[in-house]
Amino acid sequence: MPRLVTAFSNPLIKRVRSLREKRHRRAEGLFIAEGLRILAEAEQAGRLPLYLFYTEAMRGHPLVVRLAAAAESAGGEAIETSLDILHKLSGKDNPQTVLGVYAEFATDLSRLDRSAAGLWLVAQALRDPGNLGTILRTGDAVGAGGLILIDDCVDPFSVEAVRASMGAVFTVPLAQARWPDFLAWLRAGPATLVALSLRTDTDYRAPAYPRPTFLLTGNEAQGLPADYEAACDLTVKLPMRGKADSLNAAVATAVMAYQVLAAHDGAAA
Amino acid sequence: MPRLVTAFSNPLIKRVRSLREKRHRRAEGLFIAEGLRILAEAEQAGRLPLYLFYTEAMRGHPLVVRLAAAAESAGGEAIETSLDILHKLSGKDNPQTVLGVYAEFATDLSRLDRSAAGLWLVAQALRDPGNLGTILRTGDAVGAGGLILIDDCVDPFSVEAVRASMGAVFTVPLAQARWPDFLAWLRAGPATLVALSLRTDTDYRAPAYPRPTFLLTGNEAQGLPADYEAACDLTVKLPMRGKADSLNAAVATAVMAYQVLAAHDGAAA
């Protein structure tokens, strides 16, 4: 039986709302995902919400019925509530009518199997949650083995990052590591580490990108530290025909990722 | 001589702050751009601020000195102010220390010369200002002739769109049109209209993309209306190896734009 919660002062509402802050997410090991589409992705990836919130209008929706039953039989809870409460929980002006609270995943490097994919994404000191989520979404599209976050990146479990990932946070393996630990892991097996650079003459379309290729993207404002770039096996450049010398970080990652995919498909043909 | 303004109640501060709302931008024909980098792009593109705001710490910065002199001799005004005021004007938690108020540009289709470039970007009913700005930034990078906004898109002069464009709002020609007017203009000359589609077997790497190619991107949630897609000369698909069936709109536009650039470069070689 779903519980009915409509009071802003309800302790669970306060607790879930606090998950919009990173320190509370870390303390609880929980994060928020919103919207039917993203919750359906989570279900397909075998992830059930610990708490499932939905509005009265969604009570009979097949996915809500299924998720509520599955969550409850796994020890979770289904909660019918108001759009106002969902607005308060998500912080969004036009909140989704369904919201789930999920357990965070372990994100240590040792969980990754580099032989599982020919392409991996790596991002360093990424600051914008929208960019992080968008890179996850691209990672899903190109069949990347996972996304490895280096140094102090924005939290991949933030509401904004999860939203921009369109569910890819549930389907693309995530890891977090400091640079020296990442490099040690990387060099313990086959890997070609690739980055965009302004200091190279190699066009991004030239290399064959040996499998597995790890695409390294730097911070939005600073780019990659010089010694990180020097540690790469390969640096390439994108044509820049305009006034600026850089692309949005998520855009640059996607253009590169699709080129690696094309190089791999060409080699396989 | 710069004016010193530090009171939140100053009428100019209230007026500039109101430019964060679209109706005030339209009524005044003005918009806000922030940050040294973006204001430098504007200057290089021949655009001077009508009002230039900067903090005391920036008083002696070469660009600020030059912009202030140029703005004043063109009838504009330089205003020294506080970081608190800049925070209020930009709505940003960590405001830039320099902010300019600019006249909006005319955005009618007739200003565009299709022979000026081999690649043009077109976006329909785009909702997210970050996506719009990011597409402008990509348009600059690929040397697109311009960005044409179809139907009800988010305002390209919004603070968020200008910010995401990283100055490309000043360097990439912009036009706005309803679909029938765009189509009439498009068909009055040479043009290949291209869109991504889930209902085609043509890989995005196959076509030669005759010049000028117009890349059409649809709304983030709905994609393109079926009749808009049917009006295209060419529909292509991107490999989608994951669970989802779409990419972020700005990401998809960029992957396509770089492929068109590669096809054109290959044909020219």
From TrEMBL, chains A, B:
Keyword check for Methyltransferase: yes
Gene3D superfamilies in alphabetical order: 3.30.1330.30, 3.40.1280.10
Record has Methyltransferase as a keyword: yes
InterPro entries: Alpha/beta_knot_MTases (IPR029028), MRM3-like_sub_bind (IPR053888), Ribosomal_eL30-like_sf (IPR029064), rRNA_Methyltransferase (IPR051259), SpoU_MeTrfase (IPR001537), SpoU_subst-bd (IPR013123), tRNA_m1G_MTases_N (IPR029026)
SUPFAM superfamilies for this protein: alpha/beta knot, L30e-like
GO biological process: methylation
RNA 2-O ribose methyltransferase substrate binding domain sequence ranges: 32-108
Domain of life the protein comes from: Bacteria
Keywords from the UniProt entry: Methyltransferase, Transferase
Molecular function in Gene Ontology: methyltransferase activity
Annotated Pfam families: MRM3-like_sub_bind (PF22435), SpoU_methylase (PF00588)
PANTHER family hit by this protein: RRNA METHYLTRANSFERASE 3 (PTHR43191), RRNA METHYLTRANSFERASE 3, MITOCHONDRIAL (PTHR43191:SF2)
Family indicated by similarity: Belongs to the class IV-like SAM-binding methyltransferase superfamily. RNA methyltransferase TrmH family.
Protein's name in the database: RNA methyltransferase
Species name: Sphingomonas morindae
Lineage: Bacteria, Pseudomonadati, Pseudomonadota, Alphaproteobacteria, Sphingomonadales
